[in-house]
Amino acid sequence: MSNLSLRERDAATIAQIGKLRFSPLSVIGGQGNRLIEEGGRSLLDLSGSAGPAVLGYGHPAVVEAVETSIRNMAGASLLLYPNEPAVSLAERLLAITPGEGERRVWFGHSGSDANDCAVRVLQAATGRSRFISFIGSYHGNLSGSMGISGHTAMTHTLPRPGVLLLPYPDPYRPNFSAEDVLALLDYQFETTCPPHQVAAVFIEPLMSDGGLIVPPPGFLKALQERCRRHGIKIVVDEVKVGLARSGLMHCFQHEGLTPDLVVFGKGIGGGLPLSAVIGPKEIMDHAPAFVLQTTAGNPVATSAGNAVLKTIETEGLVERSARIGTLFSDALRALGAKHEIIGDVRGRGLAIGVDLVKDRTTREPVAATTTAKIIYRGYELGAAFTYVGLKANVLEFIPPLTLTQDEVAEGVAIVDQAIADVNAGKVSDADVASFMMW
């Protein structure tokens, strides 16, 4: 038996290229909306393990579905033969996701591979090689999905050739208005980006890792209309904000979008590796064996996915996300009366961002070390959450959709105290030196 701590063992064995650590939290278990760290302390999880823990930990519906499936496994893959859980989940997804004509579902393991799949099949099926995406977007960490992303954390890997990265209009920092961006797109279409070369535009209906940015009303619909005129497909990335999190079943419904392809990940598996792409038959049936992954669509993960969708319906999690999300956002907004560092609180439902600033007048972002210190102090006080944003200055809250009103109050109190303690100098630069990865 090793005498090393779990964190020390992690450092000695797990590749750095697969880590994004925000605090010393080392997890040995989880129950409900709480994580249990080594030593037995319970922490309120306000990040949902970066989104996948949509029903928290140990939810009875997921436990029962997984136990039943794994005791009588219908194979281990969707590759060679159909299995009941995967087909049932595909039927459920088609039933709850608006769309026209015949559509098909592809299953993967994460949002990264789902967006990667979408890029590959769209290029092949349309015969067009270019794509439109946004500065600040994060569509995944495989070569294809990274190639259409535009986040500052991904500058180590260049976008794919021919990608057009547009500014995403930010109402809080309006460097580019919606009209500016649409005019820029029109100019690109007229000059260096002929629209007949563009297969699709990838849209985050709520820009997540870019800073939880809610687009200006009507912007995305106007973008969609321009693309439709040129036969450019609309791909909506719902990986982080979809399936009830925004207070509607699909976040794109807030924007009046009618996507051609919809990409799901994170929460769809309830914590198990699962993703999905829904799209038109003529694209998704482009060619047999075109995007294969051996264990994708396996009966255990898709059984969990069925349990998630059933639970969203039976527990009224769409309405709950809207209601609890409003309570959470309002309570965080109220902290602005005490803390000048809070510049903006935004989001939809239970996808909430708190923009931290040095000065409310200039809206200059705080240094990343300040954000990291608040998260570190939050960990010490008993809550787990993370940060996002192109300047690493936005606290991100994407908790399980089962978060309670009492847990909202608990979480807000911890954030309040963490900000106060950081302002009082209770966290040093050295404390957070190991947690500046993003």
Structure description:
Belongs to the class-III pyridoxal-phosphate-dependent aminotransferase family. Keywords: Aminotransferase, Pyridoxal phosphate, Transferase. This is 4-aminobutyrate aminotransferase. With 438 residues, the chain is of the alpha/beta class. It has 13 helices and 16 strands. It has helices at residues 6-13, 60-71, 84-96, 111-126, 143-147, 178-190, 219-229, 281-284, 299-314, 317-334, 368-381, 405-423, 429-432; strands at 27-31, 34-37, 42-45, 103-108, 130-134, 164-166, 198-203, 233-237, 261-264, 275-280, 342-348, 351-359, 364-365, 383-384, 386-388, 394-397. The strands form three sheets. A seven-stranded mixed sheet has the order 4-10-9-8-7-5-6, sandwiched between helices. Helix 3 packs parallel to helix 9 (299-314). The mean pLDDT is 97.
Give a brief rundown of this model.
With 438 residues, the chain is α/β, with parallel strands linked by helices. The protein is built from 13 helices and 16 strands. It holds the Pfam family Aminotran_3.
Mean pLDDT across every amino acid position: 97
The share of residues in helices is: 25-40%
Biggest sheet features: 7 strands, mixed
Low-pLDDT sequence parts: none
Strand order of the largest sheet: 4-10-9-8-7-5-6
Beta-strand residue fraction: 15-25%
* Structural class assignment: alpha/beta
Shape: globular
**Count of DSSP H/I helices:** 13
User: What is the rounded distance between the termini?
Assistant: 33 Å
Count of extended strands? 16
User: What is the string of SSEs from the N terminus onward?
Assistant: HEEEHHEHEHEHEHEEEHHHEEEHEEEHH
**Backbone CA Rg:** 21 Å
